[in-house]
Design brief:
single chain, 75 residues, mainly alpha, 63% helix
């Protein structure tokens, strides 16, 4: 059975607390694209989308990086 991830809720809590640097660090090491998209949806629902330009840019870059095909695979 799949376990639900509460990663997005934790990052959203960091943002609401004003700790954008920690939130950006977490977004950069996000486990999956699905988690980042869940955070993006949570920001929209909380009406916080667009409030932090650097956070929005980091989300976009992370989605692009995780969605891109890998150049090599580890053995």
């Amino acid at each position: 059975m799949a376990r639900t991830s509460d990663w997005a809720a934790k990052v959203l809590t960091l943002l609401k607390g004003g700790n954008t640097d920690a939130a950006i660090a977490q977004i950069r090491v996000a486990p999956t694209v699905k988690d980042i998209q869940a955070l993006q949806a949570a920001l929209v629902l909380a009406r916080l989308s667009g409030r932090w330009r650097d956070v929005d840019e980091t989300i976009r870059q992370s989605i692009d990086a995780l969605s891109a095909p890998r150049l090599h695979r580890s053995p």
